[in-house]
Structures are given as structure tokens and as C-alpha cells.
Amino acid sequence: MASILVVEDDEDLSSTMVEWLVFNSHDAEAALTGEDGLARMCEKPFDVIILDWQLPGIAGIEVCRAYREQGGKTPVLMLTGRRDPTEKEACMKAGATEFLPKPFRLEQLSNQIQKVLELAGTK
Q1: Euclidean distance between CA atoms 73 and 115, whole angstroms
Q2: Greater pLDDT, 62 or 121
Q3: Residues 6 or more apart in contact with residue 66 via CB below 8 angstroms
Q4: What pLDDT shows up at residue 86?
Q5: Which of the four pLDDT bands, split at 50, 70 and 90, describes residue 122?
Q6: Which terminus of the chain is more exposed, N or C, with fewer CB under 10 A?
Q7: 68 CB contacts (<8 Å, ≥6 apart)?
């Protein structure tokens, strides 16, 4: 079981991901803004952070960058619906561990979570 923070402003998608993660025996919680997500990342340890690129307030890529600059070590799985081929590179430069384009199937999300947990040596 992993502790996972989902930072996604689309409430339907956010709740679907949290429900899926809980169904798959993870402890999951959600934040709907970049500010709330960054605050939660810094106040509580998580095994994985799922972070959307486009968030109200602070963009996800800036949240990731700020988290890393503050010493955050938790693996970050960045989500985006944008199709620019340079986005994956930008995410990695900002400190993301992995990248998942939208739309995605929930099984793909689970596979990516497992991958980042393995990369981090958590599972």
C-alpha cells in the first residue's frame, strides 16, 4: 500500500483517481490547486505525488520545481492533456519522475505508479 497525493483541479477526474487508488489498496487524498498541493507535499510524507500540469494558481510544473527546490524527494508523476512533444522534457527538468499524457486508462495510471515506486525503491 502506498500513500498517494493527487493534485488535479478537475474534480471528477480527481475523485475517480482517488477512488481507483483506494480500491487498489492505496491511501490516497486529493488537492485541487497548486497551492494546496504544495502545502500538503511539504507537511506530510507521501510515497507518490500525482501532479497535473495545468492547475489554477500555481501551474503543476512550477509546483514540482518548488517542491524539489525545498528538498522534496517523493517521486512525482506529472499529468498533462497538452500535446507539445517538448513537455515531457520540461517536466523532467522541473523534477518529475515520470510523465503520463491525458487521456489515460486507470490501469495505465496504476502501471505508472508501480513504475515510479520501483524507481524510488519503495515497492
Answers
A1: 16
A2: 62
A3: 38, 58
A4: 85
A5: low
A6: N
A7: 94, 95
* 39, pLDDT greater than 70: yes
pLDDT(89) > 90: no
When computed from its CA atoms, the radius of gyration of the chain, rounded to whole angstroms, is: 13
DSSP secondary structure letters along 13-52:
HHHHHHHHHHHTT-EEEEESSHHHHHHHHHHS--SEEEEE
Q: Given a cut of 70, is residue 99 above it in pLDDT?
A: yes
- The phi-psi region of residue 38 (left if phi > 0; otherwise alpha if psi is between -120 and 50; otherwise beta) is alpha
C-alpha cell at 9: 483541479
Query: Domain 3-120: which topology?
Result: Rossmann fold (3.40.50)
| 118 contact partners, CB below 8 Å, separation of at least 6 | none
Domain boundaries, the chain: 3-120
How many C-beta neighbours within 10 Å does residue 81 have?
12
C-alpha 75/C-alpha 91 separation (Å) is: 12
Q: Is the dihedral of CA 37, 118, 72, 93 positive or negative?
A: negative
Residue 123 has pLDDT above 60, yes or no: no
